[in-house]
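Table S7 (text form). Paired inputs.
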Amino acid sequence: MINKIKSAIESIDEASRKKSIKVISHYDADGITSAAIFSRALQRWGKRFSIEIVKGLEESFIKSLPEDHVLIFLDLASGSLAYLKDKKTEVFVFDHHEITEDVPPNITMISTQLFHSHEPLSGAAICYLFAKALSPQNKDLATLAVIGMVGDSHEKLIGKIFSEILQDAETIIKKGLLLYPSTRHLDKALEYSSSPYIPGVTGSYKGVIDLLREAGIQNEGGKYKALYELNDEEMSKLITAILLRSGGKANAEQIVGNLYLVKFFNRMEDARELSALINACSRMDRPFVSLGFCLGNKKMKDEAEKIYIEYKQSLVSALRFVSEVEKISGKNYIIINAKDKIKDTIIGTVASIMSHSPVYPEGSIIIALAYNNDKIKVSARLSGSEGGRNVREVLHQVVVPLGGEVGGHPSAAGCLISKEQEGLFIDGLKRILDVELVKV
């Protein structure tokens, strides 16, 4: 893949001598960190460019893109090749999502999907490999690649390339409870924890104090340690106490893993927390604030932190709505039609939190819908880490006959449909899910 990247660098260099570059990137944490890495690399390269952050790609948007620019797509476009093949300009795609058709000759594709022996990488990691191949000076962008990998849940398997990126970023890795931010006082981190959700503790400060007392963790000088500061014995006792609180609905493999600590704005930070903050800005329709934050803008950092607080408040309201609303359910699946009660930009996060909740058995499919103007945003998630059906394939079977497209992975996928198709989509979804159950 590195040879392919070096070839792409030569092609971009040649094409950009006559045209400006337009970068289009996805609006989640992986897409934003990809955009930050790429834009800084282009800036240092002396290239003329502009950036647009988008929720997804539709045919009308792709047709509107200028053909007097070099078009570069980051962390998306693998499912839109049929539309891109008609563009009369150079097109480059740096992505890791599933490719559903042959790559047209006018598109240079840099994707782990084309290299079957390649380890899984996020979009930000691929963009970092591009930046590093362009110049050793860009090694300082490795931290953004780590944040993107963690934000896209690609951090569980550390292969050779990711290991090198972690070294470039001087990342500190500690095994422990997957609770973020691991760099803040433990009592506050537990009180606001939604992943993992801890019954009787999440949202209850009294419950937090009771849990810490059970785990034998004392405050020092009126303050509790940060999670990453716990010694092995304290960490083990805390994990045991949380497992006991879950009533057998969680196991150590689900809530224990690597904590990634990186230096950001000259402070030790939890990469998971940074990815959540970046993601929050986009979900609150402020993606360029998170982009500025990633690029080191102090004013944007202050703004991003305010948005993050607002986002968490919106998320709490959304989760409260989900707990109260009537749901469509069957064996091993649940459908939540939030309509206009939850922002389309956070419906995916809501579905993800639900998929990690001990309320739903492993292998359950959770599908959530929210209005987006004249469209409906659909997010599907698979509960648990193993087993169950391919949620991307489930959506694909329903959406393609309606003329739509699906993006994502086997355990997390999404699509856009028109409001007019709401009833048809839900009926088709129930039919496919029930038929699939019979086949299984």
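Next pair, protein 2 of 2.
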Amino acid sequence: MKIASHRSKGEKVDIAVCAPPGFFANNPQVIRTNREIVLAYGMQQVDKVQAIKTHQHWQPFGVLTWSVSTDGGFTWRTTDRAPDVGRVLDCSYGEPLRDGGMVTISFPRTFLTTYAFLQKGQVGMMPYNNQLPARKAIPLTDFGPFGCFWFHSMIRTTDGALLAAGYSSVPGGPSSDYCTTTFLRSGDAGRSWKFFSHAPLISKTFGFSESGLLAGPKGRVLAVLRTDLDFVPILKRPKDARVGYGWFLFQMESLDNGRTWSRPVKLPIWGHPPYLLRLKSGTVVMVYGHRRPPFSVRAILSRDNGKTWDLKTLRTLREWKTGAYDIGYPQATQLADGTILCAYYGYSTPAAVDTGILQPAGIAPTGIFVSLFDEEWLAKGES
């Protein structure tokens, strides 16, 4: 991995933020303030997780961890104490608030409800090991016709409201694992939330779950959806969904701030989950995990507000030549100088072995990484 203290225009630099041997870290959230960049994520010992029959993503032994950079992402200080931060300008897992804080939504592993968190001064608080963080936790209970809501992304729409995307099990569906993307809305800066809408149910052979959102003018909202086939037996899935983990992304649009949605259409982009970021130029970048060989994190541009995606700009941010599907969940922000900072998790050891279907052979150590690049680098496309 390239080690650098600067990046030239049109180049990409990769940085290992925190990747200690023997630990599993995943799903970093990116918080950019007027003073620093903060990554918040969970970290746990691999051997402890391997000893129990619980999915590693639940972080059963997780310790909430923060990495802080004050030089644009080149160097990082890692701590297990929430750092004191400046005014929040951007947060990938929530939305900034006018008071300089942020709001996000999360759910403890065994609690039966979901919580919104209003945070200021110290940010990136999330529930771990069934303990709510020492911040005001607002229980959410209005999920409309659905009994749950697993949060993934949030935007502010042009009417000033907050729109949160998650996914929910569909009552009466073909399986208890059949789900669709659902939306909650807050009109009071995150202090209360109500069910708002859901993605159209277009198939009983796959569902939708985690989605990336992008607000546009005049009430337009773009949603790019992860397809979910967990409830479908391997041999009954589309042929291109039988190796690795996932399928093609789908996309839908709302013209009324997320109240109603167009019929989702399939994109020629395989992977999940997506994260959407509008750049200062107006161009949109989407980053996502490609969880089949070659296991990688990728990025692509749209120059028409997400109506189409320029496949010539599809580029690999990082690839794991030896690995399995447990990578990705990239999230991004753009710095004042135009640099795009994308954070993600991936294997920190060559021990991971791909089995070709769904589950990797075992839990392998993973770390938190960032890639620093710009629109010019993406526009070049793969060489």
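The longest strand covers residues 23-33.
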